[in-house]
Each structure stands twice: as structure tokens, then as C-alpha cells.
């Protein structure tokens, strides 16, 4: 009998901290051996000249999320996860969004129905809380956190989703008490509404005014406020999709004051600018929030990736077709900027863009790349050590990269169901040629090979990174690392 189901041989493996020339032995979907000259497996994969990296964890993407009247996301769990796999991502975490008046449990159940037996890669859910009723705060949220939905997003913007400070404080207190991680979309809704009204009244309705309606001060103010609320409650938060200098300054200030504030950024803040919105109605293709800024801000975001300010790098894939009455042209019309659905696609291009422009240029190291795109998101959302790394006992979620493969990004080569990519025509070097999810090929040599339904739902653990500063007053007011607990978790995950 073969000792291994598969051996990935002769590659250069990189994790968040190490780089080594070694083979990987896989059995029952898990990594069971790392070494040189491993015995033959039933399947042999030669990775000579290739990089062997943990599959990406895209911890911020929107798939088949119910939208307002007449709008529809272009990607469901099938097309979205197909696109993810073809870009080297093996785990996605989209959002089960509560509609006001709906119970949180109903939102989660509805989202499970939408995921159905469709996904090609593994997936977990964040929740979006828009209606924090007493029942949600006292019963539903604690119960759902205990069941493995251990993160939720809070909006400080969008009229139909935004929460006020009191509601946010109450939610942060629940996160603290039950060990969940709150993600905050930090833009001041009232400032945006006031500016949008003035712009529209002056006849400034083109997509480019979307950026003018959401200047950096709007993001800076909300980021500052979110940090203050997190400090008050003593619970870490993640500021999602940080766009540039002013929000980064707030986060740096928080770090300098000992606050555990995590930060996420996305490809659109490295590769797009507000000028991409200034192309007539075509600019609607790049309408997202916060909006892309300018070249100087791009450089500051790059610095934040290299100097550790950012914890994770996600796509914020929010797919709407351009030429579609349910997409960027609601009702078939070119509408004023406040009515353009927000979001751009990016699941498949997230990793190649960062690899090409980050690792190959020396802005970040290969190990930082792995940390930002796989290991850190897995840790932040309670999925490690199962996901986000290559280690004994972890799932064999592996992306084999040809670091020299030159690709021109063109929408017809991508695998999402969106009719455009904002990165059309960009040249990148480096692309994953094979993606394995739990040891099975889902993308290989230009072909999608997994059956629909290969992806499994992942309940998330309570993330260690979400722990408050002050946990045990009896221990002098400091958190006491629970080592036996961590070891127990590892042993359990190796047994499962
Ligand atoms: N902004 C969000 O907050 N979510 C989806 C897309 C976007 O642009
Ligand atoms: Zn958001
Ligand atoms: Zn988003």
C-alpha cells in the first residue's frame, strides 16, 4: 500500500516564516509529511522550479449576497469559488448579511441554502449585523458565535446597513464577552449623504463624483471613532478595506498607544486610482467604497504592507456586471453615482497582482506574501492551524506557482461571471498553475477540475487574536496565554 495519496515533490515551499526545499506527503486530505526524498505516493506531482505555497484565504468577499430591489450579484458560490481556485485561493469567507427585521439565524440559514452544494473551495461565513435587537445581542449572536460563526461586520456607512455608536458599542461588548472578531467598515454615513446631496443638486452625477462624495476625511473620522469605541470596550477590531494615508495614520496612532487594531487592505488601493472612475460611465466599473485614491496613497498602502501595519490582504470581491440592468446599470440606465452598486471583482486576481507587484519587485518578501494572504487571515478568523499554512496536520490546501509565468489579465481568461475586470490589460508575472483543496486538484494546467460541491463549510474557532487586553483581573489585569488550550486545539484538529 502507498504511504501517501499524493506527494508534491521538489518544490520550494514557503510559509509565513520559512522557505525550504522539500517534498509534501499528503494522506486523507492532510499534510502528513514534510521532508526530502519522501517515499513514492499513489499520485506524484513534480513541482521542480515552482513555488509551493499555502492556498490563499480570501477573508473578505461577497458572493450571492441578497441585494436591494432589482440588483443581483454576478457570482454565486459556484462561479465565485471557481474563480478563487483559478487564482490560487482555497478558502473564502463571504458574508451572511442580516436584512433589517430579519433574525440573524434566518440570514445564516438562508446563506447556507445559497452555498448549497456549489462551492469548489472551502468556505466559512462572517455575519453582517444590521439590526442589533435585544434578541440578536443576547441570544442569537452568542449562540451563533458558539456554533462557529465567530466574526461579524459592522457598517458605519450605507443607509440600509449603518449602525450608530451606541449600537456599535453594544455589539463590541458582545464580541468581547463571547470571543468574536468585529470587522468595521469605517466611513461616516452622514458626511457622505451630505456631500452626495450637494453634488447631485449641482448636477454632478457621473461616476467620478463617487470619489468626491467619499473623501479621505470621511474614512479618517470613522476610523478614528471605531478605534475609540474599540478602546472603550477593550476589544480588538479589524478595520476593513483601508484605502490610504489618513486612515493609516489613525491605525498607526492606535498601534503606538498599545491598542490591538487590525487592518486590511485590498488590490484596488494598490492598483487603481480615482482617475479610473473618470472615464464617463465606464468609471462605474471601479465604483467601490472606500474609493481608490491616488498614486501617493498607493505608495503609502504598499509601505503599510511591508512594514506590518496591515494584517491581511483581501479582495473585497463584490461582483456586479457592467452591462446589466441588475448590475452597474440599474434598470438598464446610466444612473447618478449614488445609485451605482458598489463593488468590483477581484477574487482571481488578488494573489497574482500582489505576487507580481509586491514579491517580484521586492516590496514585500515571499513570506510576508504568505502571511498577508493566507496565514494571517486564517489566524484572525479562527481557522488555523487547519488552514493558511503548510504544516503537519494542516489541510493540504496548496497552490503551486510558476513564478515566471507571464499573464496579461484579460476578462475572457478569468473564471468569474462578471463581464469585466478593472485590471484589464495589466501584465503580471507569476500565476498558480495547480491548486489543491484538501489534496484534490481543483485547478490544474489551465483546467478547472473539481466537481461542484467539493468545497466544505468550515465552522470557525474563536480567534486568539480577538482576545481583549484585560481578561483576568486576578492575574494582574493581563491576559494569560492558555497554552494547554492551544495544544489541545492542535491535537483535536490533527485527529479530526
Ligand atoms: N464596499 C463595501 O463595503 N462592500 C462591498 C463592495 C464595496 O465597494
Ligand atoms: Zn465594506
Ligand atoms: Zn466588502
Model description:
The protein is an alpha/beta fold and 496 residues long. The chain has 13 helices and 19 strands. The chain has two domains: 56-380, TIM Barrel; 464-495, no CATH class. 31% of the residues lie in helices and 20% in strands. Strands 1, 2, 3, 4, 5, 16, 17, 18 and 19 form a nine-stranded mixed beta sheet that branches. A seven-stranded parallel beta sheet has the order 8-10-11-12-13-14-15. Helix 8 links the parallel strand 13 (237-239) and strand 14 (261-265). The protein is globular, with a radius of gyration of 22 Å. 54% of the residues are buried.
CATH superfamily of the largest domain: Metal-dependent hydrolases
> What is the name of the CATH architecture of the largest domain?
Alpha-Beta Barrel
Largest sheet: 9 strands, mixed
What general outline do the C-alpha atoms trace?
A: globular
SS content category: alpha/beta
Q: In CATH's first tier, which class of the largest domain applies? A: Alpha Beta
Distance between the amino and carboxyl termini: 23 Å
What name does CATH use for the topology of the largest domain? TIM Barrel
Overall structural domain count: 2
The value of Rg in angstroms is 22 Å
Number of helices: 13
